[in-house]
Amino acid sequence: MLVNEAVGTRRSAVDSDQIRRALQSRYDELTVEYDEALTQSQVLRLVEVGDTAGDDQADSGTKTAERDTAQSLLRTILDRRAQFEHALNRLADGTYGWCEGCGDSIPVERLEIFPSATTCVTCKQSRERRAA
Length: 132
Hints:
The protein is an all-alpha fold. It folds into 2 domains: 9-96; 97-132, no CATH class. Helix content is 70%, strand content 0%. Helix 1 (13-50) packs antiparallel against helix 2.
């Protein structure tokens, strides 16, 4: 069970611990993934700095695209890790599993698929429509 079954019920300590372990595990995996991507990005930069002789526009463009891709990957991993950190904080303060938009419980099925979800499907769809 990832969330309270009904409004006003409390999650058991065993359930909370299970959720915390799952969230922390994913957070730790993302930390390792970030560290590996950061190392690869630094290696790419070192290679790029040492290998510029004879570069034409295509070479420069390729290196720029690779650098941009590496930076984008780092930002994506950091964003995902921040989502899991937020979920861990919400679990600690007792708000995990409750929608930040409307306050209703987030369906268990949604949290099983997307454990760091902070909104119910209705609020998420509403936000996406406003952003479009």
